[in-house]
Amino acid sequence: MGRTYLVEEGVGQYLTELSTKVKPYVTGLLIGQCSPQRDYVIRAVRTPPKEQQQEESLGPPKLASLDEEWITTHASQVSRMLPGGLLVLGVFMIATPELAKDGQNALRKLIFSVEKSLSKRRLWKPAEEEVSDRAALQICSATKKVVCRTYDMQDPKSSAKPADWKYQSALTASWVALGCTVNVNIHIPLLATSPNHDLEKNTKNGLNRWSKQIEDSVFLINGQVKDEDTELLEGQKKFRGNTPPSTQFSDVKVLTQLCQGASPRSTATVQVCSGSINLRGAVKCRAYIHSNKPKVKEAIQALKRDIINTLSDRCEILFEDLILNEGPQKKSFGREYHVLPQRLFVPVAGSSVMLSDYKFGDEAAGEIQERFVEMLDQPVQAEDMHIAEDISTVDICPVTDSPSDTQQAQLTKATLLLKLQQNMGLVVAAAVAVLASIFSFNYFSD
User: CATH number of the domain that 26 lies in?
Assistant: First the structure.
């Protein structure tokens, strides 16, 4: 028995409109949510056309001209605009009858490429019980016949399995929204052995450590700690009669554990550093979960991933902007102060779900509107764009001078004192304060 895809009716209308414009084919992404019982598709987004495709269309139609890199890049850009709980569920292709024979092979190749590209960017690992099937939807532009198949992303040699494709109205009308604000204050050391001050790599390593803290955090849903295996909506009233459903919002508090590891004992590592990166601010996070008896662990997992993704995506966007403005071969740096892009939310037409994007301070509303049209094929009104948060910053601090012999001796003495204090079971905070004024270092807990 294959998987079932419940699809918002608006998606069907969108695909029908696209099929009237096919010359000779069009590809795109399916956006939605996985669940153990079924999957939900809330949007379909066509691949943005490239200028050179107009010239290629003059030749004979062929799927061999599919630009795989262009499609996977689009998928990466779109994934940044999805709140927690939503992901790229698969790919679609609308093609003329003469291309139908090769369509499924092209879709299979595409879906694995897209998933590989997206998984490289993630700072979290999928759970063992998580759904790993992704959809490949093929539509004939002449007959409008729809064929949906799935492939297991954990098995590169997996064969196609049939899937049901069913349209449903008001699919997300009663979905649950969860929101939280997470205060961020991350100190990332730049090791002296790091070549060319690789800021992006060091930042990603630091975010990897921080993401583990988020994974181990305690989540209070509407002020309560709930068992992960209970139903999220347990005890809440259900809508009856003619009462229209609406999105239910849950406020979440994130409690980050200060001490990690099962053992109360810890060790300190002093490392020679060339500087540090400091990420500071408060980020707004949001996740959506289906209303078909969702479990608490599904909701928390969706919100955790949004917390991790939103900070990681902002750093990626910032470094991409720096590369464009300063070039990729920057080998030395002074103290730098950057502002991370702010998150904004935009409603989806015909849905209770909101999508997001990131805005630099000097970006005009028109640029954001153009990006939504290009990436999501969705017009957006300026008054519908809601900036959710204040400014968050990145402070890059180099160590300007090399340590003198006296400082090095002080550092060695302080290191020995630190180890002695640990063996005696004393706190290391005092030693950390002394060292911070002498040299940059990093403190890890086993």
Answer: 3.40.140.10
